[in-house]
Amino acid sequence: MYKHWKFRERVAKTASIFFRSKIKRRYVRDKIRFHDFIQSVGVRDVPLKKYPAPIDVAFCFDGRGANLAAVAVRSLVEAAAGLCDYCVYCVVDDSVTAAQKRTLEKMVGHTGSTVTFLPANHDFDAARRAGWPVSIWYRMMLPKLLLDVDKIIYADIDTIFFRDLVELARIDMGKNLVAGVPAHGNKYMNSGFLVLNLRQIRAEKLYEKWIAAAQIKNYRHPDQDLLNFTTRGRAIYLPLRYNFQTYMGRRVFKLYSTRELEDLRHHLVVMHFSNWIKPWGGRGQRPVFSEYWWDVAKKTGLYK
Which pick of 65, 119, 177, 202 has the fewest CB atoms within 10 Å? Predict the structure, then answer.
């Protein structure tokens, strides 16, 4: 399949030239290049025992992202398929309403998982943001907000889950500070899905360094760049299946081996819609694989 990706890419480019819209051209190219790319996801080969303890997972957002967070949380607990429960921590500000919180709690109401809301602090109010909302810094607050948690899995709200996170619950972080998926072939991690070693971060007082550094330089991707720079050489690199980003296009075939792509094809865990084209855009303005996101959205009670 993958050794012929160059030919498929030529077909994709040729087919896309007949559309005026940039979004539509991208959709057509991705539809062809990723045809039959995701298979047998969410299917376990053998029966497994339920993980004995709830797994800590965090999402961070403001009021504008609450509905999107509901979709992510719903997909998270559905993908667990009885194999685990989650302690879901949501770092939020005052713009998240009581009604939105109740909706998020309903996402886990039929499971053994729980949702806990943590008020964002003001430690990063003076941080440079390069035009991004201040909520991008909320994930950096987790070491301070969760003093009793040693390790946590963090995910952006524009993600959906296809499998449980039991494997990551068992990961041995050692003295490493973070685990994530390198997305550029140079060990630069995308910060949309991470495992954070909160205990080690606190022990090395990295949180205080983050606050100071965030006020000095205006990074292009503020939180992501800072995380990469301050954890360089202290990171575990996860397989592509933990953060598949469709925006990568043909680079996926250049950067990853056939073995890694086959692993993704059959064992996808997290799909991350990190591009500026989002599934919840208007019809004709959505990325490839948006149907998976909408399949979950229909189950949240927020569909309309």
Answer: 119
> Which class in CATH covers the domain with range 49-259+269-281+291-297?
alpha beta
Residue ranges with strand state E in the chain: 55-60, 86-92, 114-119, 152-155, 159-161, 178-182, 189-196, 235-237, 244-245, 270-272
- Identify which of 273, 205, 262, 217 has the alpha carbon closest to the alpha carbon of residue 239: 262
> Could you report the per-residue pLDDT of 87-146, keeping only the tens digit for each?
999 999 999 999 999 999 999 998 999 999 999 999 999 998 877 888 999 999 999 999
Q: Write down the domain spans for the chain.
A: 1-40, 49-259+269-281+291-297
Give ∠ CA 23-221-89 in degrees, rounded to 5: 95
Under a CB-based contact definition with an 8 Å cutoff, are residues 146 and 205 in contact? no
pLDDT tens digits, 150-160: 999 999 999 99
